[in-house]
Protein 1
Amino acid sequence: MYNLTQEQENVLLWLKEGNTFDVCSEYCPDQGKIIPTYPIAPKIINRTVYKLRREGLIKYQAVQRYGIRWDRFSLTLKGREAICSKR
């Protein structure tokens, strides 16, 4: 079992609905900026992203937006199972 905070669980539940979020990974003024694909999203902070990624609950794919690299995060199968077992 994973020791997740309420904030982390909220992010996983939001991702479970098919949403994603992008994190700027380029060395630029937007580095670390988080942009959700849906305007109403739970609060996502970098510490939450690191924890969920380290546990293997979310994954990312590099995408280019206007020539700047962003990492698009989505739920993994392991993350889906973790959140379903909590509910």
Protein 2
Amino acid sequence: MKSEIILDDRKIGKIAFELLSKVKRGVEGRRELNKGIRARCRGMYSFFYYSGSLPTLAFIYSKAGEDLIKTTLTRMKEEEFIPPIVKDEDLSYAIYGSLICCFLNEIGVNTDGSLKSIIDVFGEPKDEGTYILDYQILRFAKWIRKFGESLFTGG
């Protein structure tokens, strides 16, 4: 792991809110996509809690596909988020995966959105940094759940 930054919970919450607000502006008026994003925000936290980061991210990548996550991540880095035109369910997983990638980049753990870069981030299974990173992602997912439920109400 390249960085072991441990952020204050308020900082993690602020990052989550800013990212979700950007996504919200980009998907305004897309009712089914809003519902899908809300479902991902609500449901993925428990995946991270019970299974850990790498298995959960592998699941997210299996649902969205690596190319869609990389495309979505690139668009999320732009001034205004304009989502790719794909099926709403696939896009909701890609957005969630991209949120995690944006968070990793924010805390200094660089990922380009490729599955290989995600796997590389986690290094050796017993590495202390992996546990710290798992915990940071879990805290981020908790904020995503809280803000996602309030921001994405289906409209």
Protein 3
Amino acid sequence: MSNGPRRHIVPANSIGFFSTTESGHRRDRRIYCRLKRNSRTFATTPDKIGWSRTVYGAGKGRRFDHDGYFAKFEPLNNDSVTALLHEEGAWKNADQWINLVAYVASRITRNPDRELNSAEEFAKWKGGGSIGYPLNLQRLSAAALRCRWEFITSPAQDFVLNDRGFVGIRHPGWQAPALFVPLRRDSAVVIGGGARHRKQLAWQNGGWRISIPTTTIDSELTLKLNAMSWIGAREECYAARPQPLENAAKYHLSVPDEVKNLALANDYVYPILGSTLDECVADEMLLLRLLGGIRVREDSDDPTNLWI
């Protein structure tokens, strides 16, 4: 196993979006990495960091390799998502948002600790279940659809990305647990907020658009979020420059223990997963309905506006 191929936990292409370099393949662009074990910061490229030769091993058996399965979701985090993140106003392209939902869910699912947590969850349910990655991705995709979403931009300070690709936080406005997911060095999403949140869809300019707010934050809040990413990292964090990494590592020492615990929680997806089997089934039924195509009710007074 130790001589097997490299398997990235956070896709190298996704780490490349945090580089200031604009040319060349994203996995070969200059990035900075800081290690938790010795606080060393160094320049490198995404292809050389964030990987393991033993990842995706729990419960799969020797002949199963889910890296190829997850690779199909990596292109969903592409330039169309960049356009979505920087689109002005609350109304976003619904198709691009669905791509982002699938990508975020795949990022959470592919984390190696998630498989072990799923095994514990299923063991508690009388109905049993599989701990296979495809099933976990379906569950998380359905749950992510139901979550409250918010786009965040940080024009004054770069975000830090950890080697999980996300971290648990408490959203100050929602007063609820959430997952903070950096996607670009200046853009991120937050999902959670009590798990179930209705969203408005509207037919505009020949396509469905979804209402999701965007919040611009200052350097102080960015530093706090970066510190949480540092705390929640398994082994390392990445950024476009050394300074955000060093600031996050220094600031995390002043974070209260009750806040740190959100980043260190064993089951870090609890802010979005249904707490009962009925809730999980309801999430997946919504996912299946959307996969079949959005249908306008014939008896609706306003067929150009829907709620999901």
